[in-house]
Design a protein that fits this description.
By secondary structure, the protein is of the alpha/beta class. The chain folds into four domains: 2-56, no CATH class; 189-228, no CATH class; 229-324 and 432-491, Nucleotidyltransferase, domain 5, CATH 3.30.420; 327-423, no CATH class. 48% of the residues lie in helices and 8% in strands. The chain has a five-stranded mixed β-sheet. Strands 1-2 form a two-stranded antiparallel sheet. Helix 1 (2-10) runs antiparallel to helix 2 (16-68) and helix 9 runs antiparallel to helix 10. The longest helix has 53 residues, at 16-68.
Length: 495
């Protein structure tokens, strides 16, 4: 550019001095222009950098907002974490409780009705004193109208066992019957069973249980005695009961598995659960990974299917037939992406999974072991199309490969065989809710009782919880089952 100006000036019909002055002015102007171009370029670069920062900050703000909005409906958070969350507004202006159920009967719920029993404990006869005509000359007809009142008795019952001394007529020796009853005064197995029942079934604290014994039964029982009874019950469970649970789980077609952290002397250890709809076994371990998963002696040797969330350690189990991914977790991720990023991918996957779940239930209820070959091909193709459409959608939004939406899409790719495994085995449950329900009481009890004192103490808690959960699944009265275990653990039967 400078050369062109120089040639132009030299072609002018003016003196050399004027030409020199003009050349100098042009040179200065060109220098100024060059500096301005440099400044403009730097400003453009700065604007580009600031735009990138703003874009990244926008993504960070969106991600933080997403995390703030996470609860049990769109993440793996337990429902207990929703307690301090602000209630969501529903479309009709009401509030969404985030899993908490409103009181009262729900649509479709059959409810319960108090019905009369065939053999009442007491009968009180109410007689007519006189007829409406005034006559007192009445004769019983033999018919009556029964109205039954249901009540409970809350009282202390003291049974004195008298060992009667007898004198032998032949030799004159005085003796008494042999007995394994403790000397002086003692508490019955029923009292012990009730104490453990209230502690571990209904999460009552030691202090409140002590007060209840005093107020309701006039029994002054120390917290130390209650603790000893609890340990006695845990010991009565022993290896026999727990080993039986393990054998029954090992024989099951599938096992639901999960884990959660519990507080032991200020440190976190892991409670691992292996369960079905009939049995529950909980095991404490310092480790969360494969070592902890195998600590119960079940999954390390199991040859059936495992229902699990996305925790990678379950994928490393060498002996299992395969993993069925939990649909409930996938639902939550879909809700998360749909709410925070407005992605069509989320709603499409959600509809696809819901449809599969309903069809699987129908086939299983009809006793059909698997989907037809035609259906399996159809759903595999639909699954692949969903992922391809999802890729196109995410690319349009220019999300980076580390973005939350891409991570979800890649998870669906990697877990395809696990997500669709039930197509060949319709008996497999499609959620891991069974395992999550087994772990939830641990959190409730921890809120009431606080930390465990040791790993051994934590395992005692889990053994008792295993018993309670299994007894419920077996259709047993939990208190009656505990009493039976206290009296004669050898006679306790698992089916």
């Amino acid at each position: 550019m400078a050369a062109n100006f120089s040639e132009l000036i030299n072609s002018l019909n003016i003196d050399d001095n004027s030409k020199a002055i003009m050349q100098k002015i042009v040179a200065e102007l060109l220098c100024i222009i060059t500096e301005k171009d440099k400044i403009i370029a730097e400003q453009a670069k700065l604007i580009e950098e600031q735009s990138l920062v703003i874009k990244n900050q926008g993504s960070e703000i969106l991600e933080l907002q997403r995390q703030l909005n996470m609860d049990s409906s769109n993440s793996s958070f337990p429902p207990s974490s929703d307690m301090n969350k602000k209630k969501k507004k529903s479309e009709d202006g009401g509030t969404v409780t985030g899993g908490a159920s409103n009181r009262g009967g729900k649509p479709g719920h059959k409810g319960t009705t108090l019905n009369q029993v065939k053999k009442p404990d007491l009968i009180k006869k109410i007689m007519l004193e006189q007829c409406s005509c005034g006559s007192r000359d009445l004769r019983i007809t033999g018919s009556y109208e029964a109205r039954q009142e249901f009540d409970v008795e809350i009282k202390r019952v003291v049974t004195e066992h008298r060992l009667i001394h007898c004198k032998c007529v032949s030799c004159g020796m005085v003796s008494k019957p042999a007995s394994d009853l403790p000397s002086n005064a003692f508490y019955s197995e029923k009292v012990k069973a009730y104490a453990v029942y209230m502690l571990d079934r209904h999460f009552m604290s030691y202090e409140r249980l002590k007060e209840q014994f005093t107020d309701m039964f006039e029994l002054a029982i120390s917290e130390g005695s209650i603790s000893n009874w609890r340990r006695e019950f845990a010991n009565k469970l022993g290896k026999s009961y727990l080993n039986k649970l393990k054998q029954l789980l090992l024989a099951s077609k599938y096992i639901n598995a999960d884990e959660t952290g519990i507080n032991v002397a200020g440190n976190t250890i892991w409670a691992h659960v292996n369960c079905t709809d009939k049995y529950t076994l909980l095991q404490a371990s310092p480790k969360r990974g494969s070592e902890g998963i195998k600590a119960s002696g079940v999954l390390g040797n199991y040859s059936g299917f495992v229902i699990a969330d996305g925790w990678s350690s379950y994928k490393g189990l060498a002996t299992i037939r395969g993993i069925q991914s939990c649909f409930a977790h996938l639902f939550r991720y879909c809700v998360d992406i749909g709410e925070n990023y407005k992605q069509k991918l989320a709603s499409k996957v959600l509809d696809f999974l819901h449809g599969l779940m309903e069809e699987s239930k129908a086939l299983n209820n009809a006793g059909i072991a698997n989907f037809s070959a035609k259906s399996r091909i159809k759903y595999n193709l639909q699954y692949d199309k969903l992922l391809k459409d999802g890729e196109v959608e995410l690319k349009e939004h220019n999300y980076g490969k580390s973005h939350h939406t891409w991570r979800f899409l890649n998870r669906l790719k990697k877990e395809k065989s696990s997500v669709l495994r039930f197509l060949r085995h319709t008996f497999l449950p499609l959620t891991n809710n069974e395992a999550e329900r087994s772990l939830r009481p641990l959190k409730v009890k921890q809120k009431i009782s606080g930390t465990c004192l040791s790993l051994e103490n934590a395992q005692e808690n889990l053994n008792i919880r295993s018993f309670i959960a299994t007894a419920k699944k077996q259709g047993q009265n939990v208190l009656a089952a505990m009493l039976k275990m206290f009296i004669n653990p050898q006679d306790f039967i698992l089916i």
